[in-house]
Amino acid sequence: MDAIEALLTRKSTALLEAPAPAGDDLEKILKAALRAPDHACLRPWRIILFKDDARHELGQIYAEALKKKDVDASDAALEKELKKPLRAPLVIAVIAKIQDHPKIPQSEQLLSAGAAAQNIMLASHALGFGGIWRSGDICFDETVKTRLGATGLDEIIGFLYLGTPKSHPPIPEFEMSDHIQEWKSV
Ligand SMILES: Cc1cc2nc3c(=O)[nH]c(=O)nc-3n(C[C@H](O)[C@H](O)[C@H](O)COP(=O)(O)O)c2cc1C
Predict the structure, then answer these.
(1) Per the domain annotation, does 60 fall within a domain?
(2) Cβ < 6 Å from ligand 1: which residues?
């Protein structure tokens, strides 16, 4: 798939199955992440792959976080957390490694990490895989952040669920003029 086709046809899909990107495909996807624009070459990203059984450990971290927040959390709620990362054969956490820099605002470092995440989503799609970028309270939870090594100003910007799409949802059409305009001189 060429780049323009990938850009125009990427569509999130939550219904994913094996196989996940692996081998050369996964390497290409991760290299694409590291080609994100990055002011002053701070490399403000940390990318953690949860493959196979590692996804169970991520679920345990989610459940541990819930237990810390709510000692009365029900077994059903804890079970739900344990199962969350099993919704795809590969889960990738993207952390913005943010520093207090004299010239580069924190927002730019966050955006760079977002661009890395989107490069992962697009490269995956271009190679025939699918996925969805998820976030939620777990991204902001101190237990989860600590366990994933997000310290100080770091932010978990998302968990990218990747695999083979079980279905191909339709691509929505947008009214270009709702979002895009040409500057008109006054
Ligand atoms: C930072 C960020 C966090 C997101 N978190 C979630 C989420 O937790 N759950 C969810 O269903 N979609 C989430 N989304 C939205 C989906 O990834 C997706 O963009 C949306 O379903 C629209 O589908 P599309 O990407 O195919 O247009 C998030 C998107 C971004 C950019």
Answers:
(1) no
(2) 11-12, 132-136, 158
143: tokens are 């237990």
Q: What CATH number should be reported for the domain holding residue 40?
A: 3.40.109.10
34 is written with which tokens? 């590291």
**Domain contains 58:** no
CB 83 within 8 A of CB 59: yes
Q: Express each pLDDT in 25-68 by its tens digit.
A: 999 999 999 999 999 999 999 999 999 999 999 999 999 999 99
Number of structural domains the chain divides into: 1
Q: Candidates 110, 112, 134, 157: which one to mutate for ligand 1, based on the most atoms within 8 Å of Cβ?
A: 134
**Nearest CA residue ID for atom 18, ligand 1:** 12
- The answer to whether residue 138 is domain-embedded is yes
Say whether 155 sits in a helix, a strand or coil. Answer: strand
Range of the domain at 150: 10-51+87-167
Residue 186 pLDDT grade (very low, low, confident, very high; cuts 50, 70, 90):
confident
Residue 160 CA, ligand 1 centroid: distance in Å:
10
**What is the number of other CB atoms lying within 10 angstroms of the CB of residue 42?**
16
Establish if 56 belongs to a structural domain: no
List, for residues 139-153, the tens digit of each pLDDT value: 999 999 999 999 999
Query: Residue 169 carries which DSSP code?
Result: P
Provide the token pair at 89. 């054969």
* Protein residue with its CA nearest to atom 25 in ligand 1: 12
